[in-house]
Write a structure and sequence with these properties.
429 residues; alpha+beta; GMP Synthetase, Chain A, domain 3; 11 helices; elongated; disordered C terminus
């Protein structure tokens, strides 16, 4: 066993072991460690602890000291220098006409080395670019070509799940992912759905692959010949997560019946002939355990009304419809909700034969006034005409025609074809 500390460098997710040299380091402390490229600034992820000798790559590099305020200021200056170097390098790449994309710039802690990370479709001759950058920064220049996965790890972002990239958060390295994993998990083989932002298959396909492989070994394949509690049949589909399958029975092919894996006896795994297969007795049905649910239901307290409610809530009154049986009303009057109403034919009819003389206002056939209309004052009788009103006389000479009651319109004020608001006057011959 060897005492070590685990540290993580800026922009990385992998932990490295270093010799504490007798220092007591806690998680979150910033330290200066010795690396192959020189001293580097790092953050401790795990304090002093012991690991197996086989887990250590010898020789074990030592920890130099705890980071000071001066070291932190140096790190901030290096970040500003990296930003300036990024802009200058992009201009140099455009000047040389190189087909490459600059991704990130990293400067060492002591400032003697600057690493430029870029992506390109093929090999790039950047020898002249290195000479120009070395003349500008007066430091050791290194250009390193990376892949699209490393680019996504450095830049970061949000995946289709809405969370930050796994590679930029906690993954130590990139896991090997294949299209076979998507087939095993019954996922869509559409590349746009199973690919990440980097354009490669999502790393999360590897997370549950072992579970799916274990379930696939215990579950029968499609078109397997099985014995069920309802008789023999063929498996048509399999759900690995629920460990259920849909079986087409020989006695009733349609509809398909769903069975649990524990209540099915596999007679032939996969496609093949049924000849020579002995059919055993029907297995017992699978009964889901309900003891826990019943116990919870018994122990759960009964719902009671709040303390501020003395009585139970009363039912809301039901609104009776006008014209419904038992309401004491006839057919409800039809109202016009919108649109222009033609009144040419009715105005002429009303002018020639007033309705007030033929039938009373309360004895109209098939029509009754609604409660809203009954609350309104009745119109004046023809004999009690208001003074000052100019009403047209009917052609029959029976007095003034009763003013016609207009229906209530929701669309605002409306006018008939004759332009009047009341009853229409007869034309003079």
């Amino acid at each position: 066993m060897t005492e070590v500390i685990s540290v993580r460098f800026r922009g990385g997710c992998k932990n490295y072991y270093f010799n504490p040299n007798g220092n007591q380091v806690k998680m979150g402390d910033q330290v200066i460690v010795e690396t192959a490229q020189g001293p580097e600034f790092a953050t401790c992820t795990e304090g002093n602890h012991e690991v197996e000798d086989s887990a250590i790559v010898k020789p074990l590099s030592p920890m130099l000291r705890m980071a000071t305020d001066s070291d932190r200021r140096t790190v901030e200056q290096n970040k500003k220098r990296e930003s300036e170097a990024f802009d200058i390098c992009e201009k140099k790449i455009a000047a040389h006409g190189l087909e490459m994309k600059l991704v990130n710039v990293s400067a060492s802690f002591d400032g003697n080395k600057i690493v430029f990370y870029f992506t390109a479709d093929g090999r790039v001759d950047f020898r002249e670019l290195v000479r120009d950058l070395a003349g500008v920064f007066r430091a050791r220049i290194e250009l390193r070509q990376i892949g699209v996965r490393d680019e996504a790890k450095m830049i970061g972002g949000l995946g289709i799940c809405g969370r930050p990239f796994c590679c930029s958060q906690f993954l130590d390295g990139f896991l090997p992912v294949s299209i076979k994993m998507a087939k095993t998990q019954n996922l869509s083989l559409n590349p746009t759905k199973i690919s990440g932002t980097c354009g490669r298959l999502m790393c999360c396909l590897k997370y549950e692959q072992n579970v799916y492989e274990d379930a696939a070994r215990r579950m029968p394949k499609v078109e397997s010949f099985v014995q069920t509690p309802d008789g023999p049949g063929n498996v048509k589909s399999v759900d690995l997560l629920q460990e259920t399958m849909k079986v087409s029975l020989d006695s009733a092919p349609e509809p398909l019946k769903c069975y649990h894996n524990c209540e099915v006896c596999v007679l032939r795994n996969g496609k093949g002939s049924r000849e020579g297969i002995a059919i055993p007795e029907r297995p017992a049905r699978y009964v889901e355990p309900k003891e826990e649910a019943e116990e919870f239901r018994e122990e759960s307290p009964a719902l009671t009304p709040p303390f501020y409610m003395d009585t139970q809530l009363e039912e809301a009154p039901v609104r009776e419809k006008i014209g419904a049986p038992g309401s004491g009303e006839g057919k409800p009057r039809r109202r016009h909700r919108g649109g222009r109403r033609r009144s040419g034919g009715r105005s002429a009819e009303g002018a020639g034969q007033p309705k007030a003389e033929a039938k009373g206002p309360e004895q109209k056939e098939g029509r009754t006034r609604s409660p809203k209309q009954e609350s309104r004052p009745a119109p004046p009788k023809p004999a009690e005409a208001r003074p000052g009103e100019n009403r047209a006389a009917a052609p029959g000479g029976e007095g003034e025609a009763k003013r016609r009651r207009r229906p209530h319109h929701r669309g605002g004020r409306r006018r008939n074809k004759n332009g009047g608001e009341g009853g229409s006057a007869p034309k003079s011959e």
